[in-house]
Amino acid sequence: MADNSNVSNANMTIIGADTLIKGEMTFTNSARILGKFEGKITSQGRVEIGSGSECKASIEAGTIIVDGIVEGNVIAHERLELNDTAQIRGDVVAAKLIAAEGASFSGHCAVGIEAVKNVRTMGTMPTNSTSSNSSNSSNGSNGSRPARPQAPSITSSGNLDHALDGLESKLGSFAKPKLAAAE
Fold first, then answer.
1. Does residue 177 lie in a domain region?
2. Which end of the chain is less packed: N or C, by CB atoms within 10 Å?
3. What is the pLDDT of residue 119?
4. Is pLDDT at 129 greater than 90 in this prediction?
5. DSSP-derived pairing of the beta strands 108-111 and 130-131
6. Separation CA 107–CA 116 (nearest Å)
7. Domain annotation covers residue 125
8. Domains contained in the chain, number
9. Is 176 domain-assigned?
10. Which domain holds residue 42?
């Protein structure tokens, strides 16, 4: 888990590993999710998604630290930290983004002070966000943004071979000349 030296445990809400909460959670200070949460989390302070935890939620907070799984949009007004076990499937807006090697992210991303200023409400992302590869068309938000197009899926090696053959024929003119085999 991340360094907690500047967070007072007396002001931290902790959702235990054996807990499932569905709904809306709003608080001023800090929270650590160790269990499962479904819904919406809003905080002026810090939200920590612990290793092994699952959040099917939109999260908006000053600082967000992720070690677990988040399915939903994330807005960090100050800082978003994705540690090595973090997985986010949803769109991200953050003033600062720190991602450790091993972290996983699938969705749209907008980073910087201007990106945060351009966020209107939870669930809507700036229209000029940069996209990473994603095949989700829905990530749990009720935003007014149109659904992302589905990426084609390849379900068997036969389909993959067919797709590669088509690609090879299109790129044929770029192929390297074959060298004569050594005798």
1. no
2. C
3. 82
4. no
5. antiparallel
6. 16
7. yes
8. 1
9. no
10. 9-170
**Total H helices, total E strands in the chain:** 2, 14
> Phi-psi category of 43—alpha, beta or left, where left has phi over 0 and alpha has psi -120 to 50?
beta
Q: Across-strand partners of 64?
A: 47, 80
Inside any domain, residue 82 = yes
DSSP letter (8 states) at residue 9: G
Kindly report, residue by residue over 70-120, the tens digit of the pLDDT. 999 999 999 999 999 999 999 999 999 999 999 999 999 999 999 999 886
Q: For residue 109, what is the DSSP state? A: E
What is the DSSP annotation of 54-95? EEEEEEEEEEEEESSEEES-EEEEEEEEE-TT-EEES-EEES
Query: Where are the extended beta strands (E) located within the chain?
Result: 12-15, 20-27, 30-33, 36-43, 46-49, 54-66, 69-71, 74-82, 87-89, 92-94, 97-99, 104-106, 108-111, 130-131
Distance CA 82, CA 85 (A): 8
